[in-house]
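Hello,

Our lab assistant flagged a job as stuck in the queue for most of the afternoon. It eventually completed. Since we weren't sure the result was trustworthy after the delay, we are filing this so someone can double-check. Below is the sequence as submitted and the structure that was eventually returned. Let us know if re-running is recommended.
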Amino acid sequence: MILVIINVIFFLAFVAFAYVNVNDKDSWLWVSIYMVAAICCGMAAFKKFYPVIYLIAIAFYLVYAVVLFFAKDGVRDWMMKYNKESLVQSMQATKPYIEKTREFFGLLIISAALAINYFAAVERIW
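-- returned structure --
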């Protein structure tokens, strides 16, 4: 029952994140990323599992996270060059590293949610 609740929470969160990204310049990418995760979590809440899709999505998300980590003004620059300044001081991405770093952590959250569903599916703990 707890996994159903977790998946409903992830579903609602990812739909909300997709909605927030609708007006971005790269909305086609981020709305797709969040909606794939939302659909996977929504299906898992109804005990419909697609482990192969989870693995493909996780692989894509983690590769893209690595790209964002090493990108100019990415996560590595945020940690080393900008001394880990606050990412949440405002909703506007006023500094060059904020958007890429937030996107990086979003990809990690999505990957974790899908990994939970993958392991739940292969272990059949439902």
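-- support follow-up --
The delay was a queue issue, not a problem with the job. The result is valid. The two ends are 8 Å apart (CA to CA). Residues 43 and 49 are 7 Å apart (CA to CA).
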